[in-house]
Amino acid sequence: MILKSKFEASPHRMVPGMLHIEGRRMRYAVTLSSPVGKAIEVEEALAKTQNRHIRPVNHTSATEFAQKRPKIWLVNIHGFFAGGGMYWRESTYISEFDNMWVFNPSMPGFGGSDSLPWEELSMKGMARRVITMMDIFGIDKAVMMGHSMGGAICLQMAADYPDRVLGVVYRDGAGTPSWKDRKNTFTKALAPFIPDAAGILDLLIAAALDVPDLALGKFGSTFKSILPDFSKNIRSLGRTLPAAAMLFGSDLSDLAIKMGNDKSIPFLVEWGLSDQITPSKTAYEFQELIKEEIIWLFGGHSWMLARPSTQSWIFNYHKLGQEFINKVKQRQILLKKSTQQQLASVTSIQRH
Question: d(Cα 32, Cα 15) in Å, to the nearest integer?
C-alpha cells in the first residue's frame, strides 16, 4: 500500500495533509515541537521501520529527522461536527510541552475525510482507523486525547489497543449515555409533536449556548480555526449525519467500568463548568465508572477552542495533570521493557 501526500508547513508548526486509506481520503495535521523542513512527503507505509516512511524533502537526512522524533506523541481526536484542523492553536501550545508532538486526525465523515463504510461505522471502526493512521506515521504508542465524541473513541482505543495507549485525556466525553437523556422543559414540550427530533433540536440549542463562550478571548483567531472544518462539514452533511446516528446509539459504560477497575492506563478527566452538551451529570456519571477526579474548567463544551493554552497549562502546572504525565512516562518505560523482553524471548526461541 503506497500512500502519498505533500503539504506545506504553516508558521504555527502545524503540517496538514491527506492520505488515501483503502480508497478513502483521510485528512490530518501534525504539530511539531520544532519545524522540520518546508515540506514532508509520506511515501510508503513501512510497518517494520518506525518513521522511515516520513521523509523531509528539503534534503534533511533520515538520521537527522529520526533524532528529532518526539519523546511522546499525543493523538488529539476531535468532537462531533469538528475536525482536526480546529485544534491547531491548542496543538501548538501542547507541542511546546516537553517535546510532545501532536497528531490531529479528521475522523471519518468530518473535516473533509471520507466516511467509513456502513458495516464499519462504529466506535470500533473509528478506533481502528486511528490505529491505521498511527501505523502509517510510525506512531507506536501515544497519549490519546479526545473531546466529546473523541473521548468515546479514546475510551474504545484504550479497551481495544491497550499496548498502543500511554494514557487517555477524556474531555467532556460522550462515552456514557446520560448526555443523550434530554429531559428539560424544551424537550418535554416538543416530544409529543416531534418525538424523534426533540432531542436533536435540544442539542442544537445547547451547541448555540456554547457560542458565547467561544466569543470570549481572541474571537477572531477562534473563528478562523473553526471555520475551515466547519464549512467542510456543512458541505458534506451526508457524511457527518450517519456518524451522529452511530454516536446516539453508543454506550461505552462497560468499557469505562473496565478501565476504572483495571487502572493500568492512566486517565485524566476534564470538563467545562457550563457545558450544556455533555452536562455535569454526564461528568459525574463517568467519574463514578472510571473512579478518577474531575478537573473542572471555566467555559462550556468547547473550552479548549476558546482558551487553547489551557491543556498545556494543565500538563505543566495542575497537580492532576502533572501526576498524569508522570504516569504516562512510567507506562512508556514499562511498555518499552515489555516489548524488549518479548523480542528477546522470540530471539531466544529462534536460536534454539
Answer: 8
Cβ neighbors of 147 (< 8 A, separation 6 or more) are 76, 77, 78, 79, 82, 171, 172, 173, 302, 304
62-88 pLDDT per residue, tens: 344 445 567 899 999 999 999 999 998
Q: Which residue has the cell 462504529?
A: 122
Is residue 102 within 8 Å of 94, Cβ to Cβ? Answer: yes
Residue 164: DSSP 8-state: G
Cβ atoms of 212 and 85 closer than 8 Å: no
Could you tell me which of 138, 106, 154, 100 has the C-alpha nearest to residue 311? 100
At 181, the pLDDT band (50, 70, 90 cuts) reads confident
Please count the structural domains in the chain: 1
In this prediction the pTM is: 0.85
**Domain of 14, in residue numbers:** 5-179+218-351
- pLDDT for the residue 44: 35
Q: How many CB atoms lie within 10 A of CB 168?
A: 26
- Determine, yes or no, domain membership for 207: no
Position 203: which residue type? L
